[in-house]
cytokinin dehydrogenase (Carya illinoinensis), 532 residues
Amino acid sequence: MATTRLLLTFAIYRLIVTVGLTVEPTELLRLGVGGQLSVDPADMETASLDFGMMSRTEPLAVFHPASAEDIARLIRAAYGSARGFTVSARGHGHSINGQAQAAKGVVIEMSGSRGRQLGLGKPALPRVSEEESYVDVWGGELWIDVLRATLEHGLAPKSWTDYLYLSVGGTLSNAGISGQAFNHGPQISNVYELDVVTGKGELLTCSEKQNSALFHAVLGGLGQFGIITRARIPLERSPQRVRWIRALYSNFSAFTKDQEFLISLHAHPAAQKFDYVEGFVIVDDGLINNWRSSFFSPRNPVKITSFNANGGVLYCLEVTKNYDDSSAARIDQEIEALLEKLDFIPTSVFTTDLPYVDFLDRVHKNELKLRSKGLWDVPHPWLNLFVPKSSIADFDNGVFKGILGNKTSGPILIYPMNRDKWDQRTSVVTPDEDVFYLVAFLRSALDNGDETQKLEYLTQQNRRILKFCEDAGIRMKQYLPHHTAQQDWVDHFGDKWERFHHKKLEFDPRRILATGQRIFNPSFTTQLASTW
Ligand code: FAD
């Protein structure tokens, strides 16, 4: 206990000396009581890194909140301090480029131990309303825990990410997408209400009807306007099981035509559409058994060469249909009726059947496998793009069949979404077409592999892909965007930039929040910090 206090006093001393706080030291000490403010080396190390493992910024201290009020007090201290300090919420640190890091500031650990190891109370657990079909969750809650809590009531959220060890606040600050998005929209289209601590330290409830400007700004807002401390998420009755189907294509236009047809069915009754539509690109033989496609093996070993891939590239459609006891008798027929309208390679359909929760949590199994081989904590030069439908064939020719050169270092996802399921009042930006594709290059860099697996090679390849889009006039947008110059952010937001900027001035006037996104400089620096 004495050591903890000593460390805390040191942390606070550092804050006072470094940033010239005008708040009473006792006020800040109160934040530290019980160990909430920490400079513990393990905490500092965690907060300095992220899943991307490509940037490292050590904060001044790490904060473990026990409530939204704690966060409001910390931000009021930052907002009111003479020279200021930055504050970044860290969900589960699954960003790629340091977006949750805080140079010259404090990182708020929203998930993980969040005080448990320090003997503090935890923010409230998910609270389900069965009558009104929603769940109230802490902003740092992981989606896997949201799922577990709602399943106890036979309910579940409607829109997901492929991987559930992400925080609610983290995905809502981006969009939160998976194969359900064509039908239900992204996760940011599935929120009733939020509690948010703004950059001035005000704790506000917001929704469509209450403080709506803040509500829309925060959704997809890259953490720029406030810290989400609570979200109210609508629920549906949870299905029991999932029929999971994959089918291969060697012809890209047949593949995209079928994907687009399937997402066009979104307004049809449940029996006449799939519940999830995704897909991926297979550019080399090894990949068919990669970390996302263990599906094919060991019971269904697949050799790409047996499918006569055109130019060495195959495309895999991935769809699911949810069901339970009441609909089990009809499921085969419903699936058959949908599959017969599609144009995949006839012998290439693979089907599996599993509990709903196992399907939603599918990527975690692969995470455990990779961890056991030491292949999870490696650099991840990921690139996620929203490509307009009108350019997707050019993208295929130039990138999948061109730049990649039959080599990749991780899964490449590709699936279309309907833009009218995205609320244009939110901060997220998408291409300006009714249908656009997510193309996600989910790479892992290895030091001991061949040249094409090295970080430098993959980073360079990402640059070539971006340059190709620019030269070919492909009006794509980055998802989970990463830009380092303000003009690139202005271009990214396009028509939305002025509103985005204006809301920043309103809700975070000192620009202290989420500086790891590198969109705005805090008011107390004149240039980008050296670590940027
Ligand atoms: P962090 O990385 O901790 O934070 C991201 C940003 O949000 C930071 O700027 C941070 O300051 C801010 N932030 C965090 N919490 C809050 C809060 N409570 N309030 C306000 N701002 C906050 N995304 C998809 O859409 N679909 C997928 O299928 C998908 N799969 C993924 C699979 C893996 C293995 C990984 C690593 C990522 C995946 N992602 C996916 C990306 C994911 O959505 C982002 O990494 C996102 O940032 C969520 O991660 P996080 O909760 O760890 O947030």
The chain has a mean pLDDT of 89. The chain is about 30% helix and 20% strand. Residues 2-19 form the longest helix (18 residues).
